[in-house]
Amino acid sequence: MEVISLAAGTSYFKSPETAIDAAVQALEAGHTLYGPTEGTLALRETICRKYNLDGIDLSASQVVVTPGTKQALFNLLTVLIQPNDEVVVPTPAWFGFHELMRYSPGKLVPLPTHLQDGYKLSPEMLEATLTERTRILLLTNPGNPSGRLYSKTELEALLAVTNKYPNLYIISDEIYDLITYSRAFTTILSCEGAKASRTIIVNGFSKTFAMSGWRLGFIIGPNDLVKKSIDFQGATFSGVSVFLQEAAKAAIELGSAHLALQKDVLTRNREIMRQGLEAIPNVRFYLPDGAYYFFPDLSDYLGHTSISGEQIRTTDDLCRYFRSCYNLELASGDLFGAPGHVRMSFAVEPHRLQDAMQRLRQGLLLLTA
Ligand code: PMP
């Protein structure tokens, strides 16, 4: 039985040909030396145009090109966080936030959201969590692993709460912005109440353009903060390779034409996974509006025993069971702050996905209480 992984954070799609061609051409043209620390003006202007299309007034001086979104986040945490500052993170959340915070003097404050509410963070929940010590609210929209997509009205209601805290920054991680299904995405920058001095976006090319190995991301923020981020990048990394930035520019310019095919596959795969999960008793899940994960609650299957006598006590036990008995890799919800759940990517080849869903059903049904 071949190993099928639904645990990865990358899709099976290939990086766009045009991006590859642009990188090769730039290499051949000799763009192999240091470039500007903040990123090339050409790429930063292209990034601005992407947002200008949504009516957002943005200038290249507000953009820093970074070696990936993770590094964009690390950069921001470094320049913004003082010892004991709090970073509020609605959970379940991408495990990378916890890993990054291990290297920060600040404190991660999880703000639990729940499956029965569609993982929605409400203004009331936010109000009850923010304090004078909160320096950053770190939103992910669309969410990983939840797939929750916030509407403009919902974002504006959250901003109305954050605006009561003058020292607070909102970082919106929008790395899945173009991967949505039933509804369109709204960037936080287009919302009323998004203060230019306090609202920051991080985004990248790993998901939308299947360019995870290229390490390309960016920060959009207020000028004073951008300056600090450029200083930090200058001291630690220097600018992202110019030939990679040429590829990034070509990818953005491709726009939605490139995404249409990818979206078609993902829409069909989402349905395969939805039906597969519905066919298993006692599994609760939220139908994702964005990104490419389901995050089902399998806790009813914990405390069970496999036919070979293994005790499945924890989510990690459950993942080990699927790995060893079914060659199926799932990401344990423990990593995302939600034990009992697993993250399952549907950005895999459709025939593998069908197979994976059968293995999941069989493996769960063979567990006995
Ligand atoms: N933010 C989120 C929400 C992610 O899911 C990921 C990748 N899994 C990242 C950031 C990191 O992206 P990059 O590859 O651009 O560093």
Automatic annotation (TrEMBL):
The Aminotransferase class I/classII large domain, residue ranges: 2-360
Gene3D superfamilies found in the cross-reference section: Aspartate Aminotransferase, domain 1, Type I PLP-dependent aspartate aminotransferase-like (Major domain)
Pfam families linked to this entry: Aminotran_1_2
Database matches in PANTHER family: ASPARTATE AMINOTRANSFERASE
Source organism per UniProt: Pontibacter oryzae
Keyword Plastid: no
Name assigned to this protein: Aminotransferase
GO molecular-function terms, A-Z: pyridoxal phosphate binding; transaminase activity
Signal peptide: none
Keywords in alphabetical order: Aminotransferase, Pyridoxal phosphate, Transferase
Cofactor: pyridoxal 5'-phosphate
EC number: 2.6.1.-
Family matches, as PROSITE patterns: AA_TRANSFER_CLASS_1 (PS00105)
Family the UniProt entry places it in: Belongs to the class-I pyridoxal-phosphate-dependent aminotransferase family.
Domain of life: Bacteria
Any one GO BP annotation for this protein: amino acid metabolic process
Enzyme class: transferase
